[in-house]
Design goal:
The complex is a heterodimer of chains A (81) and B (186). Chain A has 81 residues and is mainly α. Chain A has one domain. Chain A has 4 helices and no strands. In chain A, helix 1 crosses helix 2, helix 1 (4-16) packs parallel to helix 3 and helix 2 packs across helix 3. The longest helix of chain A has 20 residues, at 35-54. The termini of chain A are far apart. Chain B has 2 domains: 3-84, Orthogonal Bundle (Rna Polymerase Sigma Factor, Chain: A); 113-185, Arc Repressor Mutant, subunit A, CATH 1.10.10.10. Chain B has 8 helices and no strands. Chain B is globular. Classes of the chains: A mainly alpha (81), B mainly alpha (186).
């Protein structure tokens, strides 16, 4: 039997990719019996959603303007080199 | 020539990542943009010193960290490079689990995302929690979840194994969830 620590690691992996057969089975059984870990999976899904949403957050991306400015600076520098 | 040293691709492949990393810590758009530019310029000059002991991503991030420390110093803030680098790889989950592997604080349900996501305050907390993660966790989480870097590329960029990625993401997520919960209740 998995404990919650082990189950939570598998759960986190399962959010990103399909687990191999045995791990998937063990996690499923644990989740049937453990409400806390079932809740944890929901929290993970929530976090995944939040992360996905913040991909479009301008705080995490260079603006086109800045990108262009940096590209120019790089080009000039390279000419000097 | 090592394709990693083609500076044309640096901006495309690492620009947004480096920018978001700087922004999380510096919290100022213009300063972060300047830091990214300075990083690339310094990297061009030092290009020949790039020995393949690290990957281009970690090398660039390392230069950025030094630029950030310089910036903080000019601001009169004391931040050492050590604050931006993991001091130990200690696998410590004592904060979350008892020795028998059961939860210390049992997870409960979160409110529905739709209502939270509308609130500016939530995103502020989200960024704050993200920047509070351990150095390695911030880097991997940003790359994987925010910049959609494939697991294969993450392993390559950071010279780690898939198992390392699972473990780091597990820690990062536990910490983020805990942090969101603490601050959202305030």
């Amino acid at each position: 039997m998995l404990n919650c620590k082990q189950a939570s690691l598998l759960a986190s992996r399962a959010i990103d990719q399909k687990l191999p057969f045995w791990e998937r089975g063990m996690l499923k059984i644990h989740l049937l019996l453990c409400r806390s870990c079932a809740n944890f999976i929901r929290q993970l899904a929530f976090l995944k959603k939040a992360s996905r949403r913040s991909r479009i957050d301008p705080d995490f991306q260079l603006t086109d303007e800045a990108r262009q400015r940096i590209a120019n600076a790089l080009q000039n520098k390279q000419k000097d080199q | 020539m090592n394709d990693d040293l083609n500076t044309q691709t640096w901006l495309n492949e690492h620009g947004d990542y480096l920018y978001s990393y700087a922004f999380l810590k510096v919290k100022d758009k213009h300063v972060s943009e300047d830091l990214v530019q300075e990083t690339f310029l310094a990297a061009i000059v030092a290009k020949n010193n790039f020995a393949n002991q690290s990957t281009i991503r970690t090398w660039l991030t390392g230069i950025l960290k030094h630029k950030m420390v310089d910036y903080f110093r000019r601001q009169g803030r004391v931040v050492a490079i050590g604050d931006l680098v993991d001091q130990d790889d200690e696998d410590n989950l004592d904060y979350f689990f008892k020795t028998n592997g059961s939860w210390i604080e049992k997870p409960d349900t979160f409110p529905s995302p739709e209502s939270l996501f509308q609130q500016k305050e939530f995103w502020k907390i989200f960024q704050k929690c993200l920047s509070g993660l351990k150095p390695k966790q911030v880097e991997i989480f940003l790359a994987k979840e925010i910049h959609e870097t494939s697991s294969e590329d993450i392993c390559k960029h950071y010279s780690i194994t898939p198992t390392n990625v699972w473990v780091i993401m597990h820690r990062a997520r536990l910490s983020l969830i805990k942090c969101l919960k603490i601050h959202w209740k305030d």
